[in-house]
Amino acid sequence: MERAEIDRRRERFAHLHDDGLFVMPNAWDVGSARLLASLGFPAVATTSSGHAAALGRLDQAITRDELLDHAAQLVAAVESPVSVDAERCFATTPDGVAETVELIAATGAAGCSIEDYDPELDRIDPLEPAIERVAAAAEEADRHGLVLTARAENHLYGVDALGDTVTRLQAYTDAGADVVYAPGLTSRGEIDRLVTGIDAPVNVLALPDGPSLDELRELGVRRVSTGGALAFTAYGALVNAARELQRSGTSTYAAATLSGEVRDTAFSGPR
Fold first, then answer.
1. Domains identified in the chain, total number
2. What is the span of the domain harbouring residue 77?
3. Which of 43, 46, 134, 167 has its CB 3.0 to 4.6 Å from that of 172, i.e. a possible disulfide?
């Protein structure tokens, strides 16, 4: 891909965060990315859990090289900007974080994220080291024109401390993050506290018991993503269809198959 096209995508992705709300669904492979892009979403993200599932693994079980290859494939497959779920950036030091962001930039991605949960220690990072890691990622992302999303993982790992989440996300903003994200929040009041208490665009994870898009728009949320939900919804449909075959010997599941029109539109692009 030409450098000018990469720059256009990055500029377009950055401007999406200027005002209003947009939905950035998470794709787990090239086919899902093309389908989502063909439906008109202005940007697409990767999903660590969905990518891992596509490889027959659980979340946090892919390598950096696998992530980079995956990101490059999705960037090449769609014309939409792609933001990369980079988990912990596969590094234990700020320098290592910066290296990962540089490698993500080389894929042509328009953005990436960094989170503050350490799976090896099964804990949320202490604040100061977490800030240092975000600062390193932000500096490298800024050098390449990537939008950096900083994530506070408290609410995915049983730390019900909204005050700490707000403190962390504001600190990450001060360290250079462009967007903040606290996956797992469903309360309007909690989401409102993020939006009003942090000087950065807020991303919210769409959840079944969370606010609707209209409600999130009213709260001032700028971006909504789906995490691994679309991937596991698709896998759930596969399992339910297979069980119908096993248990009743029928194939009524095929009535909900992807239409030929949608398939042909999404999959007729360059190989």
1. 1
2. 3-228
3. 134
